[in-house]
Input
Amino acid sequence: MNIALIPARCGSKSISFKNIKNFCGKPLIYWNLKALEQSNNIDKIYVATDCDKIKKVVNSFQFNKVFIYERDKENATDTASTEAVLLEFIYKKKFSKKDNIL
Output
C-alpha cells in the first residue's frame, strides 16, 4: 500500500494558518490532497495535525482516501522536524513491511 503523509500544524511562524489560507479559491492544503486523492498510485492519505481548524477544513473536503492523524504535541512545535513527525507516525500506526510511506 502507498501511503502519503502531509504534516500540517497550526503554529506556523511565517504565515499563520498557511495550510488553510485560500489559494486560487480553495485552501492551500486542498490542492495537495486533491492531487493525491486523484492519484492511482496512492491508497491512503494522512494529514498529521494538532489543529482543530485544519481538521475541520480537511474533513470538509470529504475525500475518500484522506484521514486525520493526531500528532503528538511535542511534534507540533516550532522546533519539531518533519522527520520526527514521520517517525512518530510510522511507530504509532501499524504498517506492513510492504507499505510505502511518502
